[in-house]
Design brief:
four-stranded antiparallel beta sheet, alpha+beta, 256 residues
Length: 256
């Protein structure tokens, strides 16, 4: 297996999914899939082939075989092969494909795999947002404040006010907060109560409770036993239209 990683351009350890890049972006997706299937089916049984037309995924594809040996043969033989006048660059995929996870572990394992991937994506977005906020708050060329010389700010007065200190912690936009087990729901119709929200959010794994905020209309907190349930609920309900006007609700993770 270690020898396979040594093939030109290969950086990932062997697995059953081949990552293909440097594909011609002007070709229609259906035509591209047909061409890739014709080429790679010579090396083994293909259980999935993923190619998308969105900007981020253009020029790339994933070919999923039912065993690692087929992927190894394909990479060895097809590396650099020209398709639509461009040489294909092949490597093993960094993670297992959905088709492989489903084949090995069934639907439940596939759902767990998707939730983990989504949580990792949101953590990365949260980290990137925090880094961008730090760049915006810190003047160009300014050095980070020296903890030994910077006087600590008093927390007893003006608590909760936004600090003007460029060294203060960046505030991450709520859309990019990292996953946790509590959701913050906004833009709720005024007539929705605990029972109505429980009917919506109680469908998801590990639901614990809905908490309304006394004196505040249109918002609520929904708690789950673990992150997995909150992630699933957020993805399924964010933007859902409620009330007579079908006003979309906003669902984010609670700020920690």
């Amino acid at each position: 297996m270690a020898a396979a990683v040594g093939h030109s351009g290969v950086t990932q350890p062997p697995n059953s999914t081949v990552y293909v890049r440097n594909l011609e972006e002007g070709i229609k997706i259906d035509d591209l899939k047909e061409a890739l299937t014709e080429i790679f089916s010579e090396y083994g049984n293909i259980i999935d082939l993923v190619a998308k037309k969105n900007l981020k995924a253009k020029g790339q594809a994933f070919v999923v075989f039912d065993d690692v040996e087929a992927a190894e043969r394909a990479i060895k033989e097809v590396q650099g092969f020209e398709l639509f006048s461009k040489p294909m660059l092949l490597d093993y995929a960094k993670t297992k494909s959905d088709a492989t996870v489903q084949r090995e572990g069934g639907e439940d394992e596939l759902e767990t795999h998707k939730r983990r991937r989504l949580a990792e994506k949101e953590r990365k977005q949260a980290h990137q947002a925090a880094e961008e906020q730090k760049k915006l708050k810190r003047p160009a060329g300014a050095a980070a404040p020296d903890a030994a010389t910077t006087r600590p700010m008093k927390a007893t007065r003006g608590a909760g006010l936004k600090s003007s200190n460029p060294g203060a912690g960046a505030v991450v936009p709520e859309e990019y907060l990292p996953p946790n087990k509590i959701l913050f729901v906004q833009n709720l119709p005024e007539d929705y109560d605990v029972d109505g929200l429980t009917a919506i959010f109680g469908r998801f794994e590990g639901f614990r409770e809905v908490r309304l905020v006394p004196g505040r209309k249109g918002i609520a907190f929904v708690e789950y036993e673990a992150e997995a349930g909150a992630i699933n609920a957020k993805e399924s309900t964010s933007g859902m239209g409620l009330g007579a006007e079908s006003k979309p609700i906003k669902v984010v993770y609670q700020r920690q």
